[in-house]
Amino acid sequence: MKAQDLRLMNLVEYPNWNNDGSKAYFKIRDIYFENGKIGLTNGIIQIPSTNLEYLKPIPLTEEILANWCGAKEVKSKSGVMKCFKLHGVKLEFSMSGNTYISQSRKLIPYLHKLQNYFFEVKDIELTLNHP
């Protein structure tokens, strides 16, 4: 993950954040391109600056599409891929675990890429219901 791939409000994973070694999720609140640092928040905790190398992208899964993004499963024409619809955009979830924008066949492997797509192409800030 590179700072250039991120924008404010993208959700990322901070592995081993909690005392028990479990991960936590944070929204990006600042990007410092010159030194590769990122400012984060989860609504309660503010992290003014952390190294980008400590963070991981969140892989896009069926669960995240349905439960976090609010995508609705729709009938697939081929029956091979699961299909979802989100804000009028059809997304295909392949058996190999890859998510594509149906119309363009653009691969969207991570949640922040989906957030960026909707912001850039549809001018929509995705509202996420994450844990």
Characterization of this structure:
The protein is built from two helices and nine strands; from the N terminus they run ββββαβββββα. The protein has 131 residues and is an alpha+beta fold. The protein folds into two domains: 3-54, Roll (SH3 type barrels); 62-122, no CATH class. The strands form two sheets. A five-stranded antiparallel sheet has the order 5-6-7-8-9, covered by helices on one side. It has a four-stranded antiparallel sheet with strand order 1-2-3-4, with no helix packed on it. Strand 2 (24-32) and strand 3 (37-41) form a beta hairpin.
Topology:
Layout: E1 11-14, E2 24-32, E3 37-41, E4 46-51, H1 62-68, E5 72-74, E6 82-86, E7 89-93, E8 99-101, E9 106-107, H2 111-122
Antiparallel strand pairs: 1-2, 2-3, 3-4, 5-6, 6-7, 7-8, 8-9
Low-confidence stretches: none
The general outline is globular
Quaternary organisation of the protein chains: single chain
Mean pLDDT reading? 88
H/E topology pattern:
EEEEHEEEEEH
Q: Strand order of the main beta sheet, please?
A: 5-6-7-8-9
Protein structure class: alpha+beta
Instruction: Give the distance, in angstroms, between the N- and C-terminal Cα atoms.
Output: 22 Å
How many domains in all?
2
Strand tally, please? 9
Give a quick account of the main beta sheet: strands, pairing sense, barrel closure. Answer: 5 strands, antiparallel
Beta-strand percent range = 25-35%
Rg, Cα atoms, Å: 15 Å
Query: What's the tally of helices?
Result: 2
Q: Helicity level, as a percent range?
A: 10-25%
